[in-house]
Amino acid sequence: MRFAGPRQEQRIELNITPLIDVVFLLLIFFMVSTTFEHDSALQIELPEATAIPQGAEDLPIVVTIDASGRYQVDGRSLINVEPETLKEAISRARDGKPASPSLVISADAATPHQAVITVMDAAQRLGIDHLSFATRLTPEQAAGTTVRH
């Protein structure tokens, strides 16, 4: 009869190399397949107004002006703040729209007055008659109370 001698312990090894490979592959997959939101819109704080808009027209041209006076026309930033550049951008945005499109000026509450006047002047030179200003509701209106003047 043979008796077993001292038992040798077997070391159990866990090979994590394939696990690391899978994690890296998943990381690469998610990095490639994820779409990152590229928010190039100007950050503006609209002024408040108590009037409720009457009705939205079809496809107005939207000119956004930030607090430092930079422009965007229909979501596209302009390379400079020159009036001729602004006029050209509004003219391009006007292509494919109705004969007399409206123009919405969405200016930050702290926008220099000259920047708004420049947009209005460019619109006038292009023959755009319908101008409006984007505003946000006052806190009283947002809460549902009516304000009487």
Distance between the termini: 110 Å
Query: What's the arrangement of strands in the largest beta sheet?
Result: 4-3-2-5-6
Q: Which class of secondary structure composition applies to the elements?
A: alpha/beta
Helix-residue proportion = 25-40%
Q: What coarse outline follows from CA principal-axis ratios?
A: elongated
Give the CATH class of the domain at 48-141: Alpha Beta
Summarize the structure.
The chain is an alpha/beta fold and 149 residues long. The protein has helices at residues 17-33, 83-94, 113-125, 139-142; strands at 48-49, 61-65, 71-73, 76-77, 102-107, 130-133, 136-137.
Q: Key features?
A:
single chain; 149 residues; alpha/beta; Nucleotidyltransferase, domain 5; 5-stranded mixed sheet; two-stranded parallel ribbon; 4 helices; elongated
